[in-house]
Specification:
Layout: H1 4-14, H2 21-33, H3 36-48, E1 53-54, E2 61-62, H4 68-71, E3 79-83, H5 86-95, E4 101-104, H6 120-129, E5 134-137, H7 143-160, H8 174-177, E6 180-183, H9 199-207, E7 210-211
Parallel strand pairs: 3-4, 3-5, 5-6
Antiparallel strand pairs: 1-2, 6-7
The structure holds zinc ion.
Length: 213
């Protein structure tokens, strides 16, 4: 039987994704052999992640109210790349092929789920209020990712053609007319996550993005 401190840490580690009880035991024994400075640094870094915030504009991970991309005025303020999770932004940034803004949905629409918790209303509000000319749907090329992109396309097109309240009811509003909706190009392996795509493939997928009509 392990000492209590070991047992507690094994339980903590075994609760992490992809870490089974055997691996947790090995990790605890490994950590036990490290010197105190290394362990202290590890523990402090672990606490530090809870000081991180969520960007109030795009829902990426942020160190303050806005994330580094939203804060950076040199970025193209007219395009939004819509992703599932903050990790996807890291992958897209590595390609250096995109210099616009982002929007993190926080997941995808699953079968039998309306996706009410996704940041879709906030995306729509951004498109309505910021001078956006292109929305790139960069959800993963999985069944759910594709379905979510399709759902978003319909939603966004509905805004594009929302009639003006007074006046010419049948005409689309001028300010949304110019929003182009695109999807990452082919080449990304179907069913895979952006997170695992190599930089060149992802960079090409961005360059070859196609307008969703
Ligand atoms: Zn942001």
């Amino acid at each position: 039987m392990y000492p209590k401190a070991f047992q507690k840490l094994i339980k903590n580690l075994a609760s992490l994704p992809s870490v089974g009880p055997k691996m947790a035991e090995r990790l605890v024994l490994f950590l036990f052999k490290q010197d105190i400075e290394k362990i202290r640094d590890f523990a402090e870094n672990l606490l530090e992640i809870k000081n991180m915030k969520i960007c109030k504009r795009c829902f990426n991970i942020a160190e303050s109210e806005l994330c580094e991309y939203c804060k950076d005025e040199r970025r193209d303020q007219h395009s939004i790349c819509v992703v599932e999770e903050p990790l996807d932004i890291i992958s897209l940034e590595r390609t250096k092929a995109y210099i616009g803004l982002y929007h993190v949905l926080g997941g995808v629409i699953q079968v039998g789920d309306s996706g009410a918790e996704l940041k879709i209303p906030q995306l729509i509000s951004r498109i309505e209020n910021e001078k956006i000319t292109e929305v790139i749907l960069a959800t993963n090329p999985t069944t759910e990712g594709d379905a979510t992109a399709l759902y978003l396309k319909r939603k966004l097109q509905a805004i594009k053609t929302t009639p003006v309240k007074s006046g010419e009811a049948s005409l689309p509003t001028a300010e949304f007319n110019g929003v182009k909706i695109t999807r990452l190009g082919r080449g990304l392996s179907t069913g895979a996550d952006l997170e695992y795509a190599d930089e060149l493939t992802l960079s090409e997928a961005l360059t070859n993005r196609k307008e969703l009509l």
